[in-house]
Amino acid sequence: MSRRRITIKDVATRSGVHASTVSRVLNPETRGMVSEALAQKVLAIAEGLGYRRNPLASGLRTRRSYMVGVLIPDLSNPVFPPIVRGIERTLSANGFIAILADCANNEQTEQAMVENLQSRQIDGLILATAHRKDPVIEACLASGMPLVLVNRSVARADVSAVVNDDELGIRLALEHLTGLGHTRIGYVGGPQSTSTGYDRYRAFLKVARRIGIAVTPEIIVNAEAFSEPAGKQAFLRILESGKELSAVVAANDLLALGGYDALAARGQRCPDDLSITGFNDMPFIDRCQPPLTTVHIPHDGLGVQAALLLLERIADPDARARRVRLKPSLALRGSTRRLDATAAALKPRPARPAARART
Amino acid sequence: MSRRRITIKDVATRSGVHASTVSRVLNPETRGMVSEALAQKVLAIAEGLGYRRNPLASGLRTRRSYMVGVLIPDLSNPVFPPIVRGIERTLSANGFIAILADCANNEQTEQAMVENLQSRQIDGLILATAHRKDPVIEACLASGMPLVLVNRSVARADVSAVVNDDELGIRLALEHLTGLGHTRIGYVGGPQSTSTGYDRYRAFLKVARRIGIAVTPEIIVNAEAFSEPAGKQAFLRILESGKELSAVVAANDLLALGGYDALAARGQRCPDDLSITGFNDMPFIDRCQPPLTTVHIPHDGLGVQAALLLLERIADPDARARRVRLKPSLALRGSTRRLDATAAALKPRPARPAARART
């Protein structure tokens, strides 16, 4: 069924010139070596025959594949599609294409995928999968592969990364809550093996202490995953700790949704019984009930910057590693409410025995 | 910074055998031509040196790249990530990788991307971008490229496709509504240039007539895009038509969310003033307010089946085209309510002049 591929030789035969002349014409960088008239003639014949350049073969000559690997921990987490779109659009505008791989949050799969991508001689790699201690990243750096981390990072200074300013994000959430009169504020964090989980947790400790919030172990629970079920479990632990909190800062939107589930399981409601803030501002979170007040991260921008940084590194693999930190903002919605000081003092809310019995 | 690549020659020198012997050992299909003991020795040395097969070069020999192009109209539409995950997982399990491209709903971009993918000698292509009349698909078929359509399709019988059974989906939605006592049911469709828009519209006409619903032009509006703003406009047209409807079937979830917006703009609510059903069951739609009753499509399954069908076609490009139709189910949630016959008769609801003035 498939037709024979048109080669440079076919174009040469039809044009009555040598194949090397056709090759010069077809490469924009060497086209100036032949006359303009001849170049136009050869180009017209190549187009008429349906000649298509073979980057597989020219990739072998130039040692460049114009392919970039992009590894995502979980494409069904709504924060990643906008990052991928930003990466893909930027690479495409620069003549590169993205090979996307989703490792389903599995480190062994990730390792195998990186090896597969490297064996295809990709020109570089963008990883959204980083763990704070990450043998995959160590191996990539050791191999000299141009590498950029996006969204998550590692502590090493010799790897380029584009991340959100997580400390600013936590500060925005905390200042918003204290501005509404909250002082008893808990924290539901993410896995400490990721930089996002770790940095947001450290930021909460730092900012909370600075603005005078009593930080005790009971009001902080780091969930085992950035997921709704893990968030629900973490919120339940805080809600059942006996500490009377009026608000909780969550380290991402899925954890915050788990908080909604934990409240529902106890017959309580957000924000009436507990104000909750999220982190990410993932698509459609503004349509949840209640719409989530959350730290907005410019995910598309993270993707764009990561692609630009990688293109820089591909052009100059020995350039110094750079770290780009984008600024988040706060999206104000319905999951946080002003604390009525009198009411709060009269009837401290949480952990009602009756409600608890229902769970 | 980058280290020199280990070649077959390096392995041969270290093993004390000829390069062609190493080549035979490294290819599982020719390994039987050398002794088991020698093969094990060469493999151990290759691994010790960190030899990595170069599929770019072996792809030139076998004329296979083990790469598949996957073209998505819009990765930020939440139905596509699960399809991509299903495709990617299935391809990966079979030694192929996916090159993902997002054409941002732009036909010219799509054309350019397909040409780019073809020039990289992909072994096949999965398109989620089909329009009912689609020059890109015509060109792919003409080139003999193994091709599978997913989610959307074309009317031609000679192209393989994996789609949802849209007529069954519309029937499930309509029977659910009539079971709740609704008889005045409208329809907000999608763009008629896509098979999903067209097939669901035809299915509504067919099923509605069969179950005795009065179908008049005023109660049907096909939106210009599968998006929330287009859905809002379409719902407003129906709500302002003067026809007193108690329910609307929407051709996808984003259109249904646009219906929520249209009601809100008129000071009305779902399902109190209008029951709405969606189509897709996209992630997190169960958390919207109200949670959307919708036709659940097994998107991951669409992706898996599309990948399997493409692998079949790559193995046998002359095999007959196949069409796989997956069965949807109905996800019952809070956007539909039982119609109180008496109340409905007493105070026919829609298009309140007061509310309308507010918009």
Folded structure, characterized:
The structure is a homodimer of 359-residue chains. With 359 residues, chain A is of the alpha/beta class. Chain A is 44% helix and 15% strand. The first copy, chain A, has 14 helices and twelve strands. The C terminus of chain A is likely disordered.
- As a percent range, the share of helical residues of chain A equals 40-55%
Order of helices and strands of chain A: HHHHEHEHEHEEHEHEHEHEEHEEHH
> Biggest interface, and residues per chain?
A-B, 52 and 52 residues
Structural class of chain A: alpha/beta
Q: Distance N terminus to C terminus of chain A?
A: 64 Å
Spatial strand arrangement across the major sheet of chain A: 2-1-3-4-5-11
Number of helices of chain A: 14
Write down how many β-strands of chain A occur, each being a DSSP E stretch of 2 or more residues: 12
Strand percentage of chain A lies at: 15-25%
Mean of pLDDT of chain A? 87
Oligomeric organization of the protein chains: homodimer
Overall shape of chain A: it is: elongated
The largest sheet of chain A is: 6 strands, parallel
Radius of gyration of chain A using CA atoms only: 27 Å
Flag low-confidence runs of chain A.
Answer: 344-359
